Amino acid sequence: MTDTDQHQAIYRRWRAQTFAQVIGQEAVVRALRNAIRDGRLAHGLLFAGPRGTGKTSVARIVAKALNCPNVGDGEPCDACPTCAAIREGRALDVVELDAASNRGIDEVRILRDRLAYGPSDLRRKVYILDEAHQITRDAWNALLKSIEEPPDYVTFIFASTHPQGFPPAILSRLQRYDFRRLTVTEIAGKLERILAAEGRRADGDALRLIGELAGGGMRDAETILDQLLATGVEELRVADVRGLLGLAEPEAVDGLIHALLVGDPGSGLALLDDLEERGRDLRTVLDQVVDRLRRAIIDEVARGADPGPLVAVA
């Protein structure tokens, strides 16, 4: 890479290209592979779930599997010219739209008019609409007939973090797949493989902390890792992650919660002053406090205890 080459983000370089590479969505992957293998995949799909959990990546893999000449057991080969064209964004018959900026009736009418034209290079045309819950009601009405009875060569894939925003008439015509949040262990495992391939190092605690901060989203975890690696740290340690991201130490978070519980504003303000003096982002610290309380409440309820005062937290 030359000095003028643009850095490509980790989440783009490490995007899953086959079903086998998808992390943490075993049930979805198994169902999709079986449906593709048996020729039972619906013409309209809904991928619902939190951000960064692989919805658009899996949509692209589905587009490959529907068009790959070497597909085996529902899995695309990711080596043929068709798979390469889809992977590199050169396939004219795989259309990916951001519904947040193409949500109105005029944009949908243009899309609908294009459905009449068959594929130019591939077997099937695949339309991937991300954040599809932002499509307007009038636009949905204009698209309803096309979703209900599309041409034989068209597949729609809608990805959304808020499927409750879909009109019931649309939902009833889509085959739904729910993506779950990834566990900290799953995220840390992939980050470890990325670091090994990149020739970088990090301790396990640092990777687990990144996994916790990502909130179940692999893309967010990879973005955090990219930011940390850009600092040039030889080996990422948990203290580096906290310092570089403006996080408070666990002891400071517990101290703030204790000050709140016992009504000691002096101690709480002193802790906040110290954190701010050391460059910690106080809004991030507040998020840490809320997350710590949330997890404590969940633990107490799981044990059947009364979470009322949460004295155990402090």
Describe this structure in words.
- This protein is an alpha/beta fold and 314 residues long.
- Helices cover 49% and strands 10% of the residues.
- It has 14 helices and 7 strands.
- The chain has helices at 10-13, 26-37, 55-67, 81-87, 105-114, 137-148, 168-171, 184-198, 204-213, 218-229, 238-245, 250-262, 265-277, 282-302; strands spanning 44-48, 94-98, 125-130, 154-160, 175-178, 201-202, 235-236.
- The strands form 2 sheets. It has a 5-stranded parallel β-sheet with strand order 2-3-4-1-5, with helices on one face.
- β3, α6 (137-148) and β4 form a beta-alpha-beta unit.
- α5 runs parallel beside α6, α8 crosses α9 (204-213) and α12 crosses α14 (282-302).
- The longest helix has 21 residues, at 282-302.
- The protein starts with 9 loop residues before the first helix and ends in a 12-residue tail after the last helix.
The helix count comes to 14
Structural class per helix/strand content? Answer: alpha/beta
Shape: elongated
Average pLDDT level = 89
